[in-house]
Amino acid sequence: MEIPETKSAKADALSDPEPGADPLPDTQRALLVLLFNKYRGALLRHLERLVHSREDAAELVQETYLRVLGRIQTSRFEAAARAYLFHTATNLARDHFRRQRFRAHDRLDEVSDADLPSFSPPAEQAVAAEEVLTLLRSSILELPPETRAVFIKARVQNLGYASIAAELGLSTRTVERRMAEAMEFLCNRLRGAR
Asked: Could you identify which of 62, 75, 173, 189 might form a hypothetical disulfide with 139, taking C-beta atoms 3.0 to 4.6 angstroms apart as the criterion?
C-alpha cells in the first residue's frame, strides 16, 4: 500500500527538502515509509472512528505522515514507531475537532430564530405529563405523614438519609424503610394509572 498524495505541494515537499534544512537520509526515509505503510490501515481506521469521516481520516493520515517526517529522529523512532504515529494521529484528530467545533459555532450564528427547532413538547405529551404530575402530587399526599416527610426531604430537599434521620428523630434504617415504602406506593399508583 502506498502513501496517498493528496496535494502536489506535499509531494514536492517529500522529494525536494528546503535548502538549509537537514534532509532525512534516504535509508531513514525508506524506513519511515515502510513503517507508515505498515500502520497506515490501522491509523486510517483509528482516525475514522475519531472523526467519523473517511475523507477527513485519510487527510489526517497524510498529515500525520508529513508531520512525523518533519520531526523524525530515526534512532529513537524505530522502537516506538507505532505509538508515535498513533499519538500524532490522535493529536491531529483533536485539532480537527477543535476546528469543526469552531466552524459549527459560526454556522449557528447564521441560522435565523425561525429555523431553530421548537423545544416545547407536542400537546398530547404536555397533557399526559400534567396528568402524571397531578397523580404523583395526590399520591404523595396519600402517604402516611412520617413517610411523606421522609420522601419530601429526600427527593425535594435532596437531604441524605443521615440528615433526615437526625432532623426527624428516626434511625437511618427507619428512614431507608420509609423511603422504600414511599417509592413502592408511588410506583404502584403510577403503574395502576396506565
From this structure: 189
Label each residue of the chain as H, E or C: CCCCCCCHHHHHHHHCCCCCCCCCCHHHHHHHHHHHHHHHHHHHHHHHHHHCCHHHHHHHHHHHHHHHHHHCCHHHHHHHHHHHHHHHHHHHHHHHHHHHHHHHHHHHHCCCHHHCCCCCCCHHHHHHHHHHHHHHHHHHHHCCHHHHHHHHHHHCCCCCHHHHHHHHCCCHHHHHHHHHHHHHHHHHHHHHHC
pTM greater than 0.85 (yes/no)? no
User: Can you list the domains of the chain with their CATH numbers?
Assistant: 8-109 (no CATH), 124-186 (1.10.10.10)
Location of C-alpha cell 416527610: 149
